[in-house]
Design brief:
By secondary structure, the chain is mainly alpha-helical. Helix content is 56%, strand content 2%. It contains 6 helices and 2 strands, in the order H-E-E-H-H-H-H-H.
Length: 194
């Protein structure tokens, strides 16, 4: 089963993905633009700081690019925003782990400090949470599109039961075929009274 097969085409969860991506994108964009406003050199590691975090021109550029990507994902919304949030959130977490080990080494070309590492972990978890919201849980509600894609037979039965409750006398809606009444094992379900 591919990831895109489980994503809803249009659902209220899309608003969470959209606004989460846009919010995190704006935060990163502002951080990067503040770095550009201070005219930092690209790979300077002298400890210039913006908003309490050390930065340089390269980190500002990366922040602007990732911020713009998240904002674009927020504009597109839905499945794209959800997947983008998960990918970017994972990359932030990986960046935090990598930079813990290179803080005081020459490989630290982005001038990360401990506050940057903490920010990377926090922002990664926030972005990842926005991307995974409503997708990953052992107890998703049955109206959740991810649960419905993972359990198509049960979802079809519940949908049929809802339609029956809406029709007078519990009769099947017009156009319902007997194959729609098959149980999970393929055995015939309850038949309509004639």
């Amino acid at each position: 089963m591919k990831l895109q097969d489980e994503l809803p085409v249009d659902h209220q969860l899309g608003a969470v993905y959209r606004w989460g991506a846009a919010f995190c994108g704006v935060v990163l964009l502002v951080f990067g633009l503040l770095g550009f406003a201070d005219e930092l050199s690209p790979f300077d590691t002298d400890g210039e700081s913006i908003a309490g975090m050390s930065t340089n021109g390269a980190l500002s550029l990366i922040s602007v690019l990732v911020g713009l990507a998240l904002i674009a994902g927020g504009v597109i919304g839905g499945n794209v925003a959800s997947t983008l949030n998960m990918v970017v959130g994972t990359l932030f977490l990986l960046s935090g782990f990598v930079h813990i080990f290179i803080l005081d080494r020459p490989a630290n070309i982005l001038d990360f400090g401990m506050t940057n590492v903490i920010f990377s972990f926090v922002m990664g978890l926030v972005i990842l949470t926005f991307g995974m919201y409503g997708r990953v849980s052992s107890k998703l509600p049955h109206d959740n599109p991810y649960w419905q894609r993972r359990h198509p037979r049960e979802a079809a039965q519940e949908s049929l039961a809802r339609r029956r409750r809406r029709t007078p006398g519990g009769a099947l809606p017009t156009g319902t075929t007997p194959t729609a009444l098959r149980g999970p094992t393929g055995a015939p379900g309850p038949q309509r009274d004639t």
